[in-house]
Amino acid sequence: MAQADLRSIPATIADERPGRLVVVVGLLRACRPKQWTKNVLLLFGLIFAMKLGDQALLARAVVGFAVFCAASSGVYLVNDVVDLETDRMHPKKRKRPIASCVIARSQACTLAAALFAGALGASLVLGPTSAAITVVYAALLLVYSFNLKHIVLVDVVVLAFGFLLRAAAGAVAVDVPISPWLYVCTLFAALFLGLAKRRHELVFLSDGAATHRRILAEYSVPFLDQLIVIVTSATLMAYSLYTFSAENLPADHSMMLTIPFVLYGIFRYLYLVHIKNGGGTPDESLLTDYPLLLAATLWLATATAILYVVPHG
After folding, report:
1. pTM higher than 0.85
2. How many whole angstroms separate alpha carbon 69 and alpha carbon 42?
3. What are the extents of the domains in the chain?
4. Rounded to whole angstroms, how far apart are CA atoms 117 and 123?
5. Do 118 and 134 touch, CB atoms closer than 8 A?
6. Distance CA 34, CA 296 (A)
């Protein structure tokens, strides 16, 4: 383990060098596999273009999913190396493998480089445009880790653009046109989640928020609540318009049947943010809050049934 990592923790802990299996598990945890759920967005292009039955395109979509899992994990590793000192003061983040010295910074950087190289190589299989989107995504999020996350509002917008690039990558991977409405909905939904995350950080960390993430000094709960109200309204309006305006959807407007699930999902997430003081990790909220998970499952199942099963005259 790197000496620079060991000097900052008690000697009794430093003497207990982690075994190889512990390091491997730590590296896997540092890749944040729970957050790979965000990359399911890459499959939406295939689903909503009604090409899910095309095995060749499905294989390309799965490759695109794997590419962004690798690229996003590389970004997480670099981000945790950059935030090492502040993470060690955070009540939850201090348990991360890098912050707790389960793995060394050099190990994290080596794995990150391998993941970036693997993501780029696999994206080239999908074509130069897919490779370009992958490079832009990784570069943008790396710049975010070093600089952009310290600029008020830009930090949230950059994270939202990360989701937008996922949606674009999914469409390009399978070479299908996607309604601009889907990009608009993705952008607004990502902004909603990003603002909710910032609000959770402010409430959870309280007076020490700026110590753990200095950009939080530029935010306040009332300000974020106003932004969340605006973005929530925009998200619901955009999705509603999408269900009956997108050219690639059924002409009978049956996709409007999915609106109640989106409405409930947003309301449930606001309940978790305001009443349960949640919202800090959207991926965990989706996987652990059963009403939210049920709403998401019913939305996807209903949308898929409308597109693939229900006849449209």
Report:
1. yes
2. 11
3. 14-127+138-145, 179-307
4. 10
5. no
6. 17
- Whose tokens are 């409007």? That residue is 256
Q: At what angle do helices 221-245 and 180-205 cross, to 10 degrees?
A: 160
What are the tens digits of pLDDT across the range 177-235? 777 888 899 999 999 999 999 999 888 887 777 677 788 889 999 999 999 999 999 99
Q: How far apart are CA 303 and CA 258, in angstroms?
A: 6
Residues found in the chain:
313
Which among 277, 262, 122, 276 is positioned nearest to 202, based on CA atoms? Answer: 277
Residue 297: count other Cβ atoms within 10 Å of its Cβ.
Answer: 12
What span, in angstroms and rounded, lies between the C-alpha atoms of 49 and 168?
Answer: 13
Could you report the average pLDDT of every consecutive run of 10 residues in the chain (313 residues)? 44 56 94 91 88 91 96 96 90 91 95 97 95 97 94 95 94 85 92 94 80 86 96 96 88 94 96 89 87 95 91 65
Q: How many CB atoms lie within 10 A of CB 169?
A: 28
Nearest to 84 by CA among 163, 162, 5, 195: 5
pLDDT digits (tens, 9 = 90+) for 263-274: 999 999 999 999
Q: What is the 3-state secondary structure (H, E, C) of the chain?
A: CCHHHHCCCCHHHHCCCCCHHHHHHHHHHHCCHHHHHHHHHHHHHHHHCCCCCCHHHHHHHHHHHHHHHHHHHHHHHHHHHHCHHHHHCCCCHHHCCCCCCCCCHHHHHHHHHHHHHHHHHHHHHHCHHHHHHHHHHHHHHHHHHHCHHHCCCHHHHHHHHHHHHHHHHHHHHHCCCCCHHHHHHHHHHHHHHHHHHHHHHHHHHHHHHHHHCHHHHHCCHHHHHHHHHHHHHHHHHHHHHHHHHCCCCCCCCHHHHHHHHHHHHHHHHHHHHHCCCCCCCHHHHHHHCHHHHHHHHHHHHHHHHHHHCCCCC
Measure the CA–CA gap between 49 and 304, rounded to whole angstroms.
11
